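Help needed: design a sequence for this.
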């Protein structure tokens, strides 16, 4: 592999390996093909097959996950490229590079885009096609370095399905053994507020927890002229909506950002009839990991208090989503040093904690890791195409930056 440049490393060393022009063009084509053929969570059969074929062409030995989509692939295990048992370097554990491969159930509204989605009501509107292409590209570069004897420590590629499906595809991937032998894990998420060629980093929490809440209230209905003979269910539901968020928020440290927000309330069909049934649904978001762990009990307790006050029977379905992504300090510094080694000190900026959820957090319940915000905004562009919108797109130079980030991180990790 030709070296277009070598990146300086603190101490005077240099990192080998970069992205040749031919591979850069191939990766852009791969991303566009994936963008045109989005697949929902646990249905990513075409995407999985395309990744498997390309990795096998590079002499690697990927393994499809037990759940049928997604795959893992090790580079540099015991002198060969395959799926290893993790018994490497005295049990230190390898570095894992993670990508999510699923799309969203929304239409692609980019009218002037040659590679817009060809699947109705399906779109890569969160940038998972970019994440996937970045990990694929890094894997191909690292495989070539390994063949040259320049990869001192094994690396695992993880292509995970179903990130957009609560509680995410990460738990199933973990059950399939993707973390066996892994010592650290890194990932990226597209950020349309950061210029392409840069990343955003943060120590500690970088995303929030996100759970789903469904509540049913039942009681004796009747005439609105005699509410004292009924369970005044509409009033009970209204009080749950207005009182539960403040009750829950007051029972944790205010800095935890624990917030119950309702998105749906339904009850009744006539203006003079007190109904027998009401339904509410919403989300529970939280900035703090410990408060997230307490949240189900706190929410149940608050809803029951209000329901009992109005003699309503409550049924609560609290659906765990994902905990916050809490970046490990050492792994965050690894990403910082990797990016600055390639692109200089101004290629990294501070980022805020997002209120969105990310199932990358499940990996961090088992091993230390960190996620970076990968800039995808064209420098100088003033219009922001936000995530989860049908017009979202990414500046494809972000692919090169992401490959450089992951490649440099793998090489720096090996010498630390």
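Sure. Designed sequence:
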């Amino acid at each position: 592999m030709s070296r277009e440049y070598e990146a300086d490393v603190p101490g005077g060393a240099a990192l080998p390996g970069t992205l040749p022009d031919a591979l850069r063009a191939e990766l852009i084509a791969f991303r566009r093909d994936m963008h045109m053929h989005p697949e929902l969570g646990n249905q990513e059969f075409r995407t999985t097959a395309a990744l498997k074929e390309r990795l096998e062409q590079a002499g690697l030995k990927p393994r499809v996950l037990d759940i049928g989509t997604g795959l893992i692939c090790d580079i540099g295990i015991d002198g060969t490229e395959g799926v290893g048992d993790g018994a490497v370097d005295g049990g230190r554990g390898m570095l894992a590079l993670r990508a999510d491969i699923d799309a969203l159930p929304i239409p692609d509204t980019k009218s002037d885009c040659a590679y817009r989605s060809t699947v109705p009501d399906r779109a890569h509107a969160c940038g998972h096609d970019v994440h996937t292409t970045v990990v694929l590209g890094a894997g191909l570069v690292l495989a070539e370095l390994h063949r040259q004897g320049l990869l001192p420590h094994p690396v695992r590629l993880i292509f995970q399905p179903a990130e957009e499906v609560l509680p995410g595809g990460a738990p199933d991937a973990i059950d399939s053994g993707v973390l066996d032998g892994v010592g650290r894990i890194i990932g990226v998420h597209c950020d349309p507020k950061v210029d392409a060629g840069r990343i955003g980093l943060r120590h500690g929490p970088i995303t929030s927890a996100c759970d789903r809440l469904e509540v049913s209230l039942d009681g004796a209905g009747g005439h609105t002229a005699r509410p004292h003979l009924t369970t005044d269910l509409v009033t009970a539901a209204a009080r749950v909506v207005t009182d539960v968020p403040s009750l829950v928020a007051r029972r944790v440290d205010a800095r935890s950002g624990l917030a119950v927000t309702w998105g749906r309330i339904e009850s009744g069909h006539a203006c003079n009839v007190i109904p027998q049934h009401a339904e509410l649904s919403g989300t529970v978001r939280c900035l703090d990991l410990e408060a997230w762990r307490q949240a189900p009990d706190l929410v149940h307790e608050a809803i029951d208090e209000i329901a009992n006050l109005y003699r309503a029977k409550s049924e609560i379905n609290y659906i765990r989503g994902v905990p916050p992504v809490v970046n490990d300090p050492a792994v965050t510094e690894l990403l910082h040093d990797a990016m600055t080694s390639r692109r200089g000190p101004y290629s990294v900026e501070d980022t805020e904690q997002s209120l969105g959820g990310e199932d990358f957090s499940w990996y961090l319940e088992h091993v230390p890791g960190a996620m970076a915000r990968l800039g995808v905004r064209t420098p100088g562009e003033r219009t922001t195409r936000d995530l989860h919108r049908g017009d979202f797109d990414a500046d494809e130079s972000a692919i090169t930056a992401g490959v450089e980030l992951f490649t440099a991180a793998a090489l720096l990790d090996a010498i630390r």
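The longest helix spans residues 289-309.
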